[in-house]
Design brief:
93 residues, alpha+beta, two-stranded antiparallel ribbon, 2 strands, flat
Length: 93
Amino acid sequence: MTKTEGKTASAAVKDILLSNPDGLREVIRTVMQEVLEAEMDEALGAAKGERTPERLGYRLGHYGRTLITRVGKLELRVPQDRSGHFSTELFER
């Protein structure tokens, strides 16, 4: 059984932030990474590994990007597509 089982989401986040001084940075990095993946899913018309007739392209791994924010440097993995047309709206290339 994990420590966060039975706790509310806000209590779990509060524990992370209080126990780790870099907790806020990690929360922001995780959210931004999820946004990047969601943008790629939307651009391709399919989730990772999903096979649909509406699919517009294919993934081609990730490249590393350091983003400097108020909470510090965030190391992100930006998804790429085979055609090279994907560009995120979070930041400029």
